[in-house]
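Hi R.,

Here's the chain you asked about this morning:
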Amino acid sequence: MGTVFRYIADEALAPENPRDPGRKCDVCKKNSPAYVSFGQAVPAGRKKEVRINAACADCFKAGRVREVRDGEEVVEAARRYVARAFKKESAARRTAREAAIRDELNRMPCRLPPFRQRLDWPLCCGGLTEYVGSPAQREELKTLPPVTAWDQGELQDVGAVDFHEMEGSDVLHDTGVFRCPECARLYVVFQPT
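And here is the predicted structure, written out as tokens:
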């Protein structure tokens, strides 16, 4: 699990602009690593919520950023997952689980995984999986043991995957790898541009 963001491995964490690690946060204006966001926030010194492009870890974790792009799809995916995985629980407990998942997503930069089409974070064993990176950025992710493809809760076992022969391909940049912190099951999300 990540030390900066629980569901983003530290090895997968990259500031919004790696050439300028001191880019100021759009929310608090501190000169600290800022991570990409397609969200809304009330910046320091302002009274109204505005669209922001990047925020620091402190602002994400404090809940000062509201991720807005494709939010309804995430809400629906979480609702379907919780309804299926926790069908024996009361409606109140299922609602609380959905709210916890949405809260976690709002407290981290959900645009670090290569979600080119929509925010579609895999869920497993009762909660979110950890984003471990993209084969385009991490050599060790170019060969994966058996994995499951995730597409808005639709699952497909795809077996072992070897991305080495796709070197230089957009496929590497369009693929995110996630790991369940409970059972260690691997998921890939492929969203081509």
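One quick note: Residues 71-190 form one domain.

Cheers,
M.
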